[in-house]
Amino acid sequence: MKIDDFALPGKNKIDREIVRGQIEHMKEPISSKNEYEKWLNELEVPFHDCKSNGGRIRDNAKYGSWIRRNDPIAFQVGYNEWARQ
User: Fold this and answer.
1) What is the pLDDT of residue 5?
2) CA-CA distances (angstroms) from residue 25 to 29, 44, 57, 59?
């Protein structure tokens, strides 16, 4: 997606370029988060998190979808680590 110059604040071209860079940096690739969720779904629920072992996640749940929905902080931390690799 291209950001138009007239939509950016700033008095001159340099200011607009700085703002453009800040906006582009803030965008998160949604597809990458979806890829991370799919990757987690391919894994089994960890042994210590299985409900049958006293954990919090149903044994047959999709792990990535469950974490993204019910523990967004853990999902974000895991995503950040996964994205660095």
Assistant:
1) 47
2) 10, 33, 34, 38
Question: Rounded to 5 degrees, what are φ and ψ at 64?
Answer: -65, -45
Query: How far, in Å, CA of 62 to CA of 14, rounded?
Result: 47
- Give start and end residues of each alpha helix (H) in the chain: 13-26, 30-42, 63-70, 72-84
Q: What's the CA gap between 72 and 30, in Å, rounded?
A: 14
Whole-number Å distance between alpha carbons of 19 and 55: 46
pLDDT, mean of each 10-residue run, the chain (85 residues): 48 55 53 89 89 91 94 92 85
